[in-house]
Amino acid sequence: MNTIRHPAILSLAVVVVLLVSGCKSSEPSPEQSAAPITVRAAEVTGGQTEGVSLRFSGIVRAAQRATLTFQVSGTLRERAVELGQTVKTGELLARVYNPALEPARDSAVARLEELRTQFDQAQREWERSRQLHERGVVSEQGLEQLASRRDSLKASMATAEASLAEATRLLQESELRAPFDGRVEALLVERDEFVASGQPVMRLSSPEGREVEVRVPAYMLNHVSLGQLLPVWSVQDRNRPPETGSIVEIAQSGGVRGELHPVLVALPADTLEPGEPVEVGITPRETVATTVPLLAVMKSNGGASVFRVSDGVARRVSVTVQRIIGERVVVDATELTAGDQVVYAGMTRISDGDAVQVR
């Protein structure tokens, strides 16, 4: 009985040993699991950022331009110009009809004439009464009453003159005239349409002078100054050399977070046409900064970070992003110095402490 059991136990032990050895042979060796991961890396730069030009887009426009409106409401009865037409200063552009304007002017004229006639009559009566007063025929009180009536009519006449001037100006406001020599850019109201007071009717621009407005972040306001020369590139013709513009206006920074601030750049005459899209280059002044490639920065729950390669090992380094300059990012990181290698390709395949091979 025992001679049969021992061979069976021995056979079972041999099978278990073979299975265990087979499982161990299928597991990867320590040398195979420690194979370095291939990544791409770039150097950390530090020092001067001078020479990195930032481009801001804008549209060329006329330096002198105006959106014309009527100061009175009415129906647009006459439009004397067409789109694109050139006009001279004082030339009639359009006229509105308001049925209350002319009667108001005529009523003011009639009222002034009435008061003027009454004043003249009161003046003559006072002169006659003064002579009679000297002879003792008219009392002092009667003469004073006539003088008071005359002065009252004189004041009323001044009020009527002001009313007439107002009615005349309102009637003149029914005519729209060119404030300067220019060209009609847009017609915003058609003939026989009702026009409200202050409603834009047409746009006028002068052929003299060109400018472009670009909007920049608040920190860029410290890198521009009045009279500073800037390159201006035409977007429609990339092969065209840039024109040189000069800064004429700079906005003040406000308290709204993320707000962009306008910078006005004057352009040379006879260079770029209104409506042409352009890019204005602004180069920040010399500043000491640490920069890394934009692709090297990762975002996670713990904040922004990069992988620094040292002695073939990737280590995660936390950074604080300050701003973007072209294809690089200015960061604040005490553990990074100029010349360090940071991974910018293959980051998704590595973790902190992995062995890497830089290609």
Commentary on this structure:
- With 359 residues, the protein is α+β, with helices and mostly antiparallel strands.
- 27% of the residues lie in helices and 37% in strands.
- Strands 1, 18, 19, 20, 23 and 24 form a six-stranded mixed beta sheet that branches. Strands 3-12-15-14-13-16 form a six-stranded antiparallel beta barrel. The protein has a four-stranded antiparallel beta sheet with strand order 2-17-22-21, with no helix packed on it.
- A hairpin with a 2-residue loop joins strand 19 (303-310) and strand 20.
User: How many helices?
Assistant: 4
Describe the largest sheet: 6 strands, mixed
Rg on CA atoms, Å: 43 Å
**Unreliable stretches:** 1-10, 12-32
Quote the distance from N terminus to C terminus: 70 Å
Shape: elongated
- As a percent range, the share of strand residues is 35-45%
**How would you name the oligomeric state of the polypeptide chains in this document?**
single chain
Instruction: Report helical residue fraction.
Output: 25-40%
User: How many strand units?
Assistant: 24
Task: Give a quick set of tags describing it.
24 strands, six-stranded mixed sheet, alpha+beta, six-stranded antiparallel beta barrel, 359 residues, disordered N terminus
Detail the topology: elements first, then pairings.
Blueprint lengths: L1 H25 L3 H4 L3 E7 L1 E4 L5 E9 L2 E5 L4 E6 L6 E2 L4 E6 L3 H35 L4 H33 L2 E3 L4 E6 L6 E2 L4 E6 L4 E7 L12 E6 L8 E8 L10 E7 L9 E6 L5 E6 L4 E3 L2 E8 L2 E6 L1 E6 L2 E5 L8 E5 L10 E3 L1
Helix pairs in contact: 3-4
